[in-house]
Amino acid sequence: MTVLNILIIDDDAGDRKLVRRLLLQMHPDAKVAEADCGQSALSQAGLPVDVILLDYLLPDGTGLDLIAQLTATWPRAVLFMTTGQGDEEIAKSVILAGASDYIPKSAITAEALQRMVSNGLKVAEMRWRIQEQQNELRLFSDVLVHDMRAPLRAIKFLSDQIQEDYDNGEFDEVTRQLGLMKKSVRKTSDLIERLASHINPHSNGTAEHVTVDSLFDSLRAVMAQNLAASGARIEWLSGGLGVSCFPPDIVQLLQNLIGNAIKYSGGKTPEITVTAEPAAGGVMISVADNGIGVPPEYREKIFEPFKRLQRGSDQPGTGLGLATCAKIAKRHNGAIWCDPHAEAGTTIRFLVCLGKSQAQRPA
To answer: Binning pLDDT at 50, 70 and 90, where does residue 324 land?
Structure first.
């Protein structure tokens, strides 16, 4: 069960003690921090906070004035307002200001707090997911408009040229222009496929317990043409492990990572090592290459949608590959990161923590 991080903001020490005691009855593992005023609360900005209980009247202002600053500091936290007196107008104003609920101190019981916190956390999680989806849809529409404009303009231009050359009987030129049009169509099709893959990477299906070797075999089959064309040298180290996962997703994730290793090889023959090893709660798989590397300031940003390395901007793509990898890792209760200790090239590691026997060697 996830440990709750709770912040109680109240200038009355007795009220803080009561709320802390009641909360710990329902959530004995919770980490509870306290503040006696708004300034004291905001000074704890570095702490993780899931739940905020805020008194309406504080020495340095009203809780109502503080809501915006608290939600900006802890955007994923659920906030509840408390007050010594019940008042419908206060309740309405705090809800409109962004609080999830309101409770008079006279009505505070362990059961009331449990119900309020439980419902509030569900609503907060749903609200956060909706916000993430809205942000992603906005980015999606931006890249769709930007990246599809060029190939569509090219197709329109080429179609006009083909018509003109056909009317003039220049059939060799028509053939050449048709070849260019096919390239533009392929580019548009690839873009659409990448966007679709990012939005919904294999959302259906059942997790399976498979060998890592079987994943590598599928990957080699899928990438046979790319590997042959690039001359890439790959070392596959499965460790004889098995893993519980959605196999198509993991193959796609590895395909993206190895594709990037080939794309950003810097003109050298790509040398790639794919390694699986047991990790706490699952299996860790690493893809290490001898390419151009990732500057430290980009090592976290590259997993955000539509983020690309400045020096890789001449390479084709949408900047969705690693963002899709991050979504797949998250779906497997894992994480993905760029190893900051890689001495040369790039090493990207990801965890798969799905199922009860994911790090066992198969029989």
So the answer is: confident
